[in-house]
Design goal:
It is globular and about 60 Å long. β1 and β2 (61-68) form a beta hairpin. The chain has helices at 33-44, 77-88, 99-111, 123-126, 129-141, 146-149, 154-161, 177-187, 200-206, 210-219, 224-239, 243-257, 262-294, 313-319; strands at 53-58, 61-68, 92-95, 192-194, 297-303, 323-326. The protein has a six-stranded mixed beta sheet with strand order 4-3-5-2-1-6, with helices on both faces. It has one domain (3-326). The longest helix has 33 residues, at 262-294. It is of the alpha/beta class and 329 residues long. 50% of the residues lie in helices and 10% in strands. The chain has 14 helices and six strands. α1 (33-44) packs antiparallel against α12 (243-257), α7 (154-161) runs parallel beside α10 and α12 (243-257) runs antiparallel to α13.
Length: 329
């Protein structure tokens, strides 16, 4: 399973070959008045709530910040062509996980199966009988034999469950915007570098206490149609260029559909936000500013959920003296 799938909680997408098989509904049309008010409040409080392509300038330095989705969708073709001149003329491309880093981490995971597999217990021992029966069905629907999945680390199962059965494919990440941007840069001879160590996002999941991992896993155990609908909703927000809304909607719907208690679902979501967004955003700022100081034009492409909010990359760059301008996507 490609490692870019670890970013699914931030940026979900259909695989090109699977999109016809998925028939999810945009759940934004089903929001109650209270749910809509919560989302509207969250978006109103978020700086830079909209837009998937921004330019940050400071003195002579130029940063192009592109919010991506990590998996394939045919609707990415038009934005990609509009972005092509920006990518080809860059002096440096920064990515969450360039292909060479992904390959290196994949090799490590292959040689150290304990990183993905539990050595001391199994999911049937951690779950009650009904939970394991549901989990077995969910894994089978995604092409994972339960006897194999029974040893997976719970955090990894939660990532697998984020993909609806209709879209489960080992090739999902191959046509994502990140990968296609990297292909353009490589063809144009643009150097590529990582925003962070390759194991950062892996560790953000794996370092969680096992009890938390189990709750994360159970929170993702929803009916296949609900999974498709959540998938479609995140996609719709992305192509509407509303990353702050997409994140807020995800938080509300996690509470609505999660089989665990709403307070616990809220706590899990907050933990993921801290580990996967806020902490990483702050760690990226020195990388971005140093790159801007050393190069005339830098393109940075990363999951769109990292862009908006008071602790988003855009607001953090503004605090460093950059001027922000939204550009066409």
């Amino acid at each position: 399973m490609p490692l870019r799938l670890l970013a699914l909680v931030l940026s979900l997408a259909f695989g090109q070959t699977a999109i016809a098989a998925c028939s999810g509904t945009d759940l934004r049309t089903t929001l109650s008045a209270d749910e809509q008010e919560r989302i509207d409040d969250a978006v109103a409080e978020a700086p830079y709530a909209s837009g998937n392509h921004w330019r940050a300038t400071r003195d002579d330095a130029v940063l192009h910040l592109i919010g991506t989705m990590h998996l394939a969708d045919p609707r990415l073709s038009d934005p990609l062509e509009r972005l092509r001149p920006v990518i080809e003329s860059a002096d440096l491309l920064l990515l969450e996980m360039p292909q060479k880093d992904e390959d290196a981490l994949q090799e490590r995971l292959s040689s150290e199966p304990g990183l993905l597999l539990m050595q001391d217990t199994s999911l049937p021992e951690l779950l009650d009988e009904d939970q394991w029966a549901q989990m077995s069905d969910a894994l089978s629907a995604r092409g994972v034999p339960p006897f194999m999945g029974s040893r997976f680390q719970p955090w990894y199962v939660s990532v697998l469950l984020a993909i609806p059965p209709c879209a489960a494919s080992p090739d999902l990440a191959e046509g994502g915007l990140d990968a296609r941007i990297e292909d353009i840069a490589q063809d144009a001879g643009v150097p590529r570098a990582a925003l962070e160590d390759a194991e950062t996002i892996f560790a953000a999941f794996a370092d969680q206490p096992r009890e938390m991992q189990v709750e994360m896993m159970l929170s993702a155990l929803v009916e296949p149609q609900v999974s498709e609908d959540l998938f479609a909703t995140l996609l719709a927000s992305y192509f509407d260029e509303r990353p702050a809304e997409g994140w807020a909607v995800s938080a509300v719907l996690a509470e609505r559909y999660s089989p665990i208690e709403p307070d616990l679902a809220r706590a899990i979501f907050a933990t993921l936000e801290q580990e996967l967004l806020i902490d990483r955003n702050r760690a990226w700022i020195p990388v971005l500013t140093e790159a801007a100081d050393r190069h005339d034009t830098v393109v940075a492409a990363f999951g769109a959920a990292h862009l908006p909010g008071e602790t988003g990359v855009l607001a953090l760059l503004e605090a460093e003296g950059f001027t922000l301008e939204r550009l066409p996507f």
